Amino acid sequence: MASTSSVPDAPISTEEAALKALTFQRLHPKAFLERFLAENARPDGREPAEWRDVSVNVGSISTADGSALVRLGDTTVVCGVKAEIAEPELDSPEDGFLVPNVDLPAICSPRFRPGPPSDEAQVLSDRLNEILVATEVVSTRSLCIESGKAVWVLYIDATCINYDGNAFDATLIAMVAALQNTRLPKATFDEDTGKVVCTRKEKTPLQIGRFPLSVSFGIFDGTHVLTDPTSFEEPLLDTTFTVVVDENGGVVSVVQLGLASQDVLQKCIATAKSRCIELGKQVYAAS
């Protein structure tokens, strides 16, 4: 009688294991995240309440009047400020203009498509405009050159060059840091010619009134509160919070999408206050 011998299965290589994990992640993203959270971890190695590192580099765009490059984990946003001269509104003769704009190009993530600005980019631009106006980061009165004649318009253009979630938090830092880095040429209005004369030999910084920061949270499966969610986690969240806080810990705004208990919301706000005060010393002091 012929004897048979069992052949042990060949060990799975690291490449094969990584491919299986990636396939499982794409086919069953919710179950994939659940397995990590069961071990009190997240796919990028963080704990649920752990933040990603933030870095700020200012003045890197020589053609702009002010600029900043911000990295929030792998999310990278570059912002440039361009100043132009315009006539003020008739009912606001001493007020200049802030014009923020966010671009989420196709190159930054497969989720975005080429073409006109996406709905998400437009919503981000509107939300950032509300924060800049509400906090008076730069007073529009300080942008007046000659009442009723000429004011500065600051175009604050931010482009995400790599998207890995939480673009709002990264873009707000980039915009405020770029404004802090902005220097305007000395401008005077010539009554005789009716024109503004600028000299770039003498430049002055903007008068920055407040330094807002935002932090975002997500609730997964009704129980897990995740700070600073990534692009993989964002579509899986039941609820998201974004809390905007100024440099003194004062709450500027809270945006909630989805349902959550009042206790969870209060805890997120308390966490946001301490996080923003600590982060503000790091990012804006370096700007």
TrEMBL record:
It is found in: Cytoplasm; Nucleus, Nucleolus. Pfam families: RNase_PH, RNase_PH_C. Gene3D superfamilies: GHMP Kinase, N-terminal domain. GO terms for cellular component: cytoplasmic exosome (RNase complex); nuclear exosome (RNase complex); nucleolus; ribosome. Signal peptide: none annotated. Keywords: Cytoplasm, Exosome, Nucleus, Ribonucleoprotein, Ribosomal protein, RNA-binding, rRNA processing. The keyword RNA-binding applies. GO terms for biological process: exonucleolytic trimming to generate mature 3'-end of 5.8S rRNA from tricistronic rRNA transcript (SSU-rRNA, 5.8S rRNA, LSU-rRNA); nuclear mRNA surveillance; nuclear polyadenylation-dependent rRNA catabolic process; rRNA catabolic process; TRAMP-dependent tRNA surveillance pathway; U1 snRNA 3'-end processing; U4 snRNA 3'-end processing; U5 snRNA 3'-end processing. InterPro entries: ExoRNase_PH_dom1, ExoRNase_PH_dom2, ExoRNase_PH_dom2_sf, Exosome_comp_Rrp42_subfam, PNPase/RNase_PH_dom_sf, Ribosomal_Su5_D2-typ_SF, Rrp43. It comes from the Eukaryota. Residues 50-185, 211-274 form the Exoribonuclease phosphorolytic domain. The keyword Transferase does not apply. Its main location: cytoplasm. GO terms for molecular function: mRNA 3'-UTR AU-rich region binding. Belongs to the RNase PH family. This is Ribosomal RNA-processing protein 43. It comes from Phanerochaete sordida.
